[in-house]
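# step 3/5: fold
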Amino acid sequence: MRRMTTTPDTHADPAPTVGRSVDWGVAASVGERLARPAPPVTDYTRTQVIDELAAASRAAEPPVREVTGLHTEGAIPDARIVDRREWIRAAAASMRVMTGGDVEPAASPHPLAAVTGKVAGAQTGAVLSFVSSGILGQYDPFGSADGVLLLVYPNVIAVERQLRLRPADFRLWVCLHEVTHRVQFTANPWLAEHMSRQLATLTHDMGEDVGAVAGRLAAYVRSRRDRESVGPEDPSSRGVLGLMRAVQSEPQRAALDRLLVLGTLLEGHADHVMDAVGPAVVPSVATIRNRFDARRQRKQPPLQRILRALLGIDAKLSQYTRGKAFVDDVVGRVGMDRFNRIWDSPATLPLPDEIDQPQRWIDRVL
């Protein structure tokens, strides 16, 4: 099934976006240079894991389709098995598309534009290098006309060694999660369009008065200073996400909320599916889940904790737990067929206050 995607009009005057302020070539090259070395492996092991991940990505799709009730047309596409540097290049290219950036930095009359673009590119590359050592896989709906599934084999090797897992089982388990994302998007083509629209709003330069932005930032600082710890805090109010929300316009905040809810749903649904499929196809699934969840919760060194907070990684991890709890609850109450009403349109996606109150979504949609 071919998906419609939003592409910029190269003949029109380009709208100002965050992506056009980044030199994406610099981002990719800096990220590659800073990437951590992969765990040592023999040529035999490297070939084996690449072949096994490729096979697992194909084998995962039929059971995922069966459990989800989501069906796609045509042959199962091959995954791209990549190393850390290849993932960084692919991620930089995808981020450029997502944020409306240019392949080549546009000429600007401002004398510092080229410098700031390179600085922003270097900063982005540093972030990508940090993320590249931990990501196991990623379905990228913007990576090509039909999307692409990336599996980062050095990181798969590193985790299965660290957690002492059966390699074949863990590799299939990872593929179950990532293939679920591929099925989500290919069975529901409107998802990529919905994401593109929110990203376009989020990355568009609203041209606001600096004073208005500064006022919102000051209010955010005061709210953080005065807030009393009365319970669990919404992850979107902390770290870089909280700072983003503080300086954004109202349309951008609404777009960010929709993206966060969508991400929470997609990640939680994938975790639900991998556990539902797992017992039938992954013999050691219980061991994998227990050790993997313990790894997610493990304390990190201080510098890593700071970086994770700044990059919103802890908020990302909360998407798995909150999203899975939502999907588990709804499917447990109404079954997968009725749950799948969620994929009808943007109007049937959960609202922000429904993620933690699944009955509200059931009452509204079903």
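# step 4/5: annotate
The first strand starts at residue 80 and ends at 82.
# step 5/5: archive (pending)
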